[in-house]
Amino acid sequence: MNYFISGKSARKIYIDNILNNSDKNKMYFDENTVSEFLSELNAGSLFSEPTILILKNANKVKDINNVIKNVNLNTFNDKDVIIDYEANKENKKIKELLNNFEVHEILDDRENKNVLIKYIQERLKCNSKDSNNILEIIGQDFYSLKNEIDKICSYLNGEEFSFDNIKPILSKNTNFFIFNLTEDILNKKMIEFPIKENMALLSSLSNDFEIMYKLHILDIKNINYNNFKSQYENHKFFKNLNPYYVFKKIQFLKNFSKDRTKELISLSFETDLKIKTGLLPLEDGVEAYILEILK
């Protein structure tokens, strides 16, 4: 069987499933070893073992059309081929060549996110809110996500999933550290200085204040998640943002007025500029900004 798997990060779930469900040998190639890939593809032997040939970064291969034509001619029953092609939009010219392929593609941002969320839910047996949270913390890179989920599964060792249960393992994740620290600051909890990941924290706070300012403009206050998602998921203010992540910021609006939120956005830009131009030491600048938030 030949597979052409294209699109965004969640496409790699298809690849992972194929590889995990096969006992065949795996051989990996990339844009720098195309000649070796083609040689192995066309090599025949009565004594060869069943093998899957995986061509990674196929979107970086200069003559991908020729590669596809060669794979179309693959008649070896003991050889499967996976072509992994990262893409943001459909390539009709390539699709027209895929005569002897099973095709899987994920090109839509929403579909990509939903497939990743479903993957988290199935692996951890958790609800959609928790899986949304995990995706926001870890990010959408599939192999990073899979690695963290594997750690969580190993840590839980059969115990039921809950955020409290996995905090010890997630606490080692930089994104989780930033996520928690940002929430503490927005809750006006005093934190300990000095802190790590100063610029990442500054960026996270600036991003959250921008979201909160937009929530203030829309005058969103008392609303449950399902209603918020149905009304605002596709709003121009929140395009490409995780709806649950945005929803979670509503709870902090009581701590910062619309005008105060706008002031803190401007101050974050000013602090960032001064740090990057050397007018303000990194740790001092971020600490002063956080103390201004906590006032």
UniProtKB/TrEMBL annotation:
Transmembrane annotation, as ranges: none
The DNA polymerase III delta subunit-like C-terminal domain, residue ranges: 196-292
Keyword Iron-sulfur belongs to the record: no
Cited Pfam families: DNA_pol3_delta_C (PF21694)
InterPro entries: DNA_pol3_delta-like_C, DNA_polIII_delta
Molecular function via GO: DNA binding; DNA-directed DNA polymerase activity
Keywords: DNA replication, DNA-directed DNA polymerase, Nucleotidyltransferase, Transferase
Residue ranges of coiled coil: none
Top-rank taxon: Bacteria
Gene Ontology CC entries for this record: DNA polymerase III complex
GO biological process per UniProt: DNA-templated DNA replication
Protein name, UniProt field: DNA polymerase III delta
Species of origin: Streptobacillus moniliformis (strain ATCC 14647 / DSM 12112 / NCTC 10651 / 9901)
Organism lineage string: Bacteria, Fusobacteriati, Fusobacteriota, Fusobacteriia, Fusobacteriales
